[in-house]
């Protein structure tokens, strides 16, 4: 017979530990100044840059349309693809592998000779390895003959750039935050600008506002002119009445004045309608101004940041790898929806567990997943991991994983209680947890292996050639990206999920049976 592990003895210490961890999370939230909100939840402009010199520029003057992209298919080298398409021409894809063309000179020669109409101008030494190439998100990947597309490179032994130097370069802009991304040798930074106040100073916004004001003034002038016509019409009407009373002989003249008065009234109405149409046009322009501000503000900030960085680090020495802009209304709405989503999740789980089990089990299940959410939030606050929509997805994934394990154990508790009706409730809990422990451990470890693989193999710099094992390990631990943060959050959440199922959910049912149930009896 399998020996029973007395988990119930650790219920109270575990509750104290969980309370301490949650308090530590709240403390970390206060000390760190809140979450490191991603662009999804924080209005403004965000840009990822990498300080890398220009390797070469590409132009295309041939038939059809040409686009360029990098291929990183999991091999250590990768390559460049030139895709030709268009009407009345045969589409073609030209691939230039870095292992086949190991230097910039050989790559330039192959690309120029292989694609008709393609011009590649080297800006760096031709002996530099093509494996060091870095693609920038700045510029249009659709090649043309007028504006060159820039390709950058970064050697592994490049000196790191201090973050203080980046801050000094951007001193002319109100920067919300600057963060280092990945290993320092990669020279990658995340720049966030609070653009909420800068939207009002956008050139496009000012121009449209002035245009709107001119329409409003023109509308007012039409309204005044309309009023003058109305007054003149009234004067004609009064004069017509006086003529009628004074003499019948002037009746015809009075009629003519009345007709003239009516014509003036019609003209007045037409001018009033024209005034209203101009006012409506003014309102529509104002709405257009409000809608046009974000994109133009984003473009203005993009150009400003890039110009200041290139002024300090040299023209062509900055590769823009990502640019995003989120308005304040969208970010606020997204934050509200995330809170509502978490609240609905807890409510639905409470209803489900109440129907399947007893209310005390339902409350224990909700306390367990609420504990998991708070532990993950505490972890995110202390590590300053970026809090974005991917983080919300990780939290919801853990809640689903945790409730699944909790339901399995609660189901075994119900069966064990029927089989051993004379046992104390803590004994029933210990037996049920012990019997399902192997299932819990095997399932958790198997899932964690898959998540750990996701964490390791989504490291972008892992496939660089010439790296030693120690350098690869350091790279895996130091590099940060969205998928790695997602996987890391899942690893922490899975450990918390197993812990909360055993010690929080079952601990609550034990507390209910000892105290609340006896008080009711």
Task: Outline the structure in words.
Helices cover 60% and strands 15% of the residues. With 521 residues, the protein is of the alpha+beta class. The strands form 4 sheets. It has a 4-stranded antiparallel β-sheet with strand order 11-12-2-13. Strands 7-3-10-8 form a 4-stranded antiparallel β-sheet, with helices on one face.
Question: In a few lines, what is going on in this structure?
Answer:
The chain is α+β, with helices and mostly antiparallel strands and 521 residues long.
Kindly report the oligomeric state of this protein: single chain
One letter per element, helices H and strands E, the order comes to: HEEEEEEHEEEEHEEHHEHHEHHHH
Spatial order of the strands forming the largest sheet: 11-12-2-13
Low-confidence stretches: 197-219, 228-233, 235-295
Q: What is the 3D form?
A: elongated
Approximately how much beta-strand content do the residues carry?
5-15%
Largest sheet: 4 strands, antiparallel
Helix content: 55-70%
Gyration radius, rounded: 35 Å
The total of beta strands comes to 14
User: Mean pLDDT, rounded to whole units?
Assistant: 75
Gap between N and C termini, in Å? 35 Å
